[in-house]
Amino acid sequence: MKCPFCSAAGTRVINSRPANGGDSIRRRRECDVCRERFTTFEAVEQTQRIVVKRDNSRAPYQRERLIKGLEKACKKRPVSTAQIETVVNYVEKEAFKNSSQEVTTEQIGRLVLKRLKDLDQVAYIRFASVYKQFRDLHDFNTEIKTLLKD
């Protein structure tokens, strides 16, 4: 770490402690040359997660967008905001495990449906109708029959 006062390259850490609820580390440093003290913060650099869409275009992952989609599917249903957050947390954990930075909309949709199936079947059908791009009542009927078999 370069000293901000004299630009010397040699500094040493005097004290370290967690900061921001454990998301970063605050370090108190001292320059070996001028003996001035200064504070630095160390944090994990977050990489951008990417969603690959059906047309193979790519866009940054937006948690809020997934939440809004789930809120629409669960509108006027007995599903709490906390339950929606739980679904989103599960989807993010599963979709981006193994340090994967790209995920397809298909993978996200499958993970959401997996959770909605047990949470609320009406919300499941609503979400499936958009995700699976239902064209007519026959598509709804087929999905409902599949849901009832399980």
Describe the protein.
With 150 residues, the chain is α+β, with helices and mostly antiparallel strands. It folds into 2 domains: 11-43; 50-149. The protein is 43% helix and 22% strand. The strands form 2 sheets. Strands 1-2-3 form a 3-stranded antiparallel β-sheet, with no helix packed on it. Strands 5-4-6 form a 3-stranded mixed β-sheet. A hairpin with a 5-residue loop joins strand 4 and strand 5 (58-60). Helix 2 packs across helix 3, helix 3 runs antiparallel to helix 4 (121-131) and helix 4 (121-131) packs across helix 5. The protein is elongated and about 80 Å long. The model has no long low-confidence stretch (mean pLDDT 90).
Question: Which characteristics define this entry?
Answer:
single chain; 150 residues; alpha+beta; 6 strands; 43% helix; 22% strand
Helix-strand layout with pairing:
Layout: E1 11-19, E2 24-31, E3 37-43, E4 50-52, E5 58-60, H1 63-73, H2 81-95, E6 102-104, H3 105-119, H4 121-131, H5 137-149
Parallel strand pairs: 4-6
Antiparallel strand pairs: 1-2, 2-3, 4-5
Helix pairs in contact: 1-2, 1-4, 2-3, 3-4, 4-5
Strand content: 15-25%
Main β sheet profile: 3 strands, antiparallel
Average per-residue pLDDT, rounded, comes to 90
Query: Based on the structure, what is the oligomeric state of the protein chains?
Result: single chain
* N-end to C-end Cα span: 59 Å
Short description:
This protein is of the alpha+beta class.
